[in-house]
Amino acid sequence: NRMPDNTSTWWTTNDATLEVTGVQLEVGDVATDFEHRSYGDELRRCQRYYFEIQANDGTGLTNLRPMGYSNNTLEIIPNFPVPLRSTPTLTWSGTIKCRSCTNSITETTLTLGGSSWEAPANNITTGHMWATASSGTPFLIGYTGRILSGASPSSVNFSAEL
Fold it and tell me: Which residues pair with 157 in a beta bridge?
């Protein structure tokens, strides 16, 4: 009932593919129980290698905490859902803005300026991204705000592949 009948020559057609999931291969005389993982557990395992924060239409990029470091530099501290495996490579796409990193509710477009990460016991648990304003000196030291996307989709990506 799950699989419709196929022709006996399906493998000779272009791009013939046989996909199998849920198989556990073992070496030895004794079989172990199949390891069932929940979606949440599998997601956490993946997030050790890659974590992405997305937003669009001026909505917030959650998990990012900004604070004015100097007149033209913003320190952004990400909240990782799990420790990363190694020092991440940081990229972002789209337009990223900070709202209220001054004494007003203005929005300032940001440019990525670098990053530094702390690695206790080989797992990245925290770190800093540095961003600068695309123009002017719009930040006040110690002022916090909110990181937003522009009108089109934006993302901040942390890749910790080994």
Answer: 52, 91
Q: How far apart are CA 102 and CA 95, in angstroms?
A: 19
Q: pLDDT tens across 14-51, in order?
A: 877 878 877 878 888 888 887 888 999 999 999 999 99
* pTM for this model (two decimals): 0.74
- Looking at residue 90, the DSSP 8-state letter turns out to be E
d(CA 98, CA 74): 9
Q: Which of 12-16, 81-85, 123-127 has the highest mean pLDDT?
A: 81-85
- Whether the Cβ atoms of residue 66 and residue 153 lie closer than 8 Å to each other: no
**What is the C-alpha R_g of the chain?**
23
- Structural tokens at position 101: 């990193």
Which backbone phi and psi does 35 adopt, to 5 degrees? -85, 110
Angle at 157 between CA 151 and CA 158, to 5 degrees: 160
Nearest-angstrom CA–CA distance, 12 and 92: 44
